[in-house]
Amino acid sequence: MKLSKEEKKCWQRHYRIEKLQDIPTEMSGFSSIDGDADDELMFYFAKRVSIPEMYLKCTDVTDEGVKHISSIRNLKELTIADHINVTKASIPYFNEMRHLESLNIIHSEITLSDLCESLNNQNLKTLFVSSEENEENIVEKGFILKERMPKCDVYLDTYFVTDGSGNPETPIF
Description:
Blueprint: H1 5-15, E1 30-33, H2 39-48, E2 53-57, H3 63-69, E3 77-81, H4 91-96, E4 102-104, H5 112-118, E5 126-129, H6 138-148, E6 153-156
Parallel strand pairs: 1-2, 2-3, 3-4, 4-5, 5-6
Helix pairs in contact: 2-3, 5-6
């Protein structure tokens, strides 16, 4: 089996890989901060690589990329922070991620209200989300999510379960 021209270009651009046998089948994690990770790379990751942890901050990934990410094998932790092109259209893909335990979508276009409408991934244990500036009924929305996903702790406006000193943050729900 050979790589298509498009796939070969993608692997060359991101990893200087030219042959199919050089593409890893497993990675311990993937991180891109202010990087050139994009929907195309997510497509090829989903096609070829098992990745348990993915951290994306300020990349070119959009809802289309999230669609591809939903097919990545064994993904347990996903951070898609500071992405203006990740919207509530991605929520159905989050629901499809059966191994996903931690989802961080802080500073994306997805709001707590959006999540209350349709997020329902029973495997989630932690969820990080931003509140809207004038968000109303935060407590009610939190209860909706907690009722729907009782094993999930929801953190509002924070990236981590501990603060900079290592002290535990308290989930809002």
